[in-house]
Structures are given as structure tokens and as C-alpha cells.
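User: Here's a chain of 232 residues. Predict its fold as C-alpha cells.
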Amino acid sequence: MESNIAGADILVVEDDNTIAMGLVAALEHERFEVRHVDNGEDAVAAVRERTPDLVISDIMLPGIDGLQVMRTVKQEFPGVPVIMLTARTDEIDRVMGLEMGADDYVTKPFSVREVIARVKARLRERSSEPRTPDVFHFGNVKVDLRRRTLWKDDKESHLTTHEAGTLAYLITHRGRDVSRDELLQEVWGYTAALTTRTVDNQILKLRKKIEDISGQPRHILTVHGTGYRFEP
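Assistant: Prediction complete.
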């Protein structure tokens, strides 16, 4: 395992003991430090007690559900990746979780090897240096991409993981047309559950936070038939 992710602290939130123990054993075999809780309340407490490097959480949990756990993690510790697990097969559930800020989504039944591969991928992303400056200024906007925080006219707002990822990718490739499919691949890690409408919805949310008039954008421009282009 790569030295930059060895020993990472992972919190597993799963109320099915058989699934949980299988994940814990596999993660420990990869030399990760692993904690396990079986409900949402304990998950939130565990994250606040010691911030993990990554969270794996089922959606269906006793008490606070996994979506609320994920929302709390992203609000209080926005740099922590969250991988959601679920037995649901409805596409809307997967898309909703991703649009709310989840970094990845695995549907049960799953291969433990697949989960391990996704964990390593998310940890590598987190440990790698950003391709854009931590803090970027344009117009009357300042954005801290590492903290996922944005200020417009000194009014502060929080960016979700995918909002920050989308903005970072557009800033890195500023002045170039970026297709919706490219954003799906590079920011979300494309899966069949996602459509180009997912990108459009994310752009609408970003424009509301960035543009003076969201319907008349100056920075995130639509390139008809292709996607978007960022202009500082």
C-alpha cells in the first residue's frame, strides 16, 4: 500500500454486523486503522471525538440515517471523504446522496475488494497536492478550495465536495471548454447512476453562490452543445 495513505484512520458505520466485520477485517488487512459503530448517533460522536481520514457509512441506520451522518461530516469536517453503502437500487437515491456531498457510492451486495479500491482512490485524492492554488480570487469572489469555503462580497458560504471539485476543475482549466462528460469523469468518477443533468444541477448551485446574477453568468459560462468554460 502507498506510504502516503498507510495507517489512515477509517470509520465504518454499519448496523449489519456480518457486513461490518468483513469490512473491518479487510481494511485492517490493508493496514488501515479502523473504528466501527453501528448507528448514526455514535457515528457523529466518533467523528467529533477524533476526525477520521475517511468514513464508510450505510444509508439505512438506526436513529440518524447515513445521509444525515454524511451531511454532518461535510458541514463540520468538509475535507473528510464519505463513501455511502446502501441496499437500495433506485437511481434517485444514489444521485441524491452524491449531490448532497457524498464522495462515492457502493450498492449492496458489493465486493470487498471494490470497496478497498475506492477507499484507496479517495485517500490518494485527499493526500495529493491540489492542482490549483488553495486560495483563488476572481471578481468579487475568494474561494479556499482546501477548506471548501467561498466568500462573495465578504459573505461566507460552504461548498460541498462536488461543488468544490467542479469549481477546482474549471479553475484549473480556465479559458478552456470543459464537457459535461469530462466533469462527470474527473469530479464524480463516472458511474451509470449519473447523467449530464447532475453536472448542470451542480453548475446552477455554484452560479447562485458565485455570480451577481445567476441567470447572466460572467465566470461559469455555458458552451452550448459542449459544457462549460470558466473565465476569471
